[in-house]
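Please check this today:
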Amino acid sequence: MPVHSVTIPVPDEVLLAEKATAEDFAHVLAMLAAVKLYELGRLSSGRAAALAGVSRVAFLHELGRYRVTPFEAEVEDLEANFEAGHFAGPRAA
């Protein structure tokens, strides 16, 4: 699957305020975008996880941090996969 890069200008003041490197902030922006697009129903949890660069399980776990509740179907699907032994832990960064 092809992967594309998107460039977003970020002022130094923002990086200083966030106390983050450009690379770290890029990961934060990817997660925020993934969470919001998932919340709006524009991305599935799997595609949002891919955008964020984490496993689906890790993504669904992170949603609570952003006060976003996974859809009931997602929770049921996740539980079924876990019970079937299809658990995939988070990828190393």
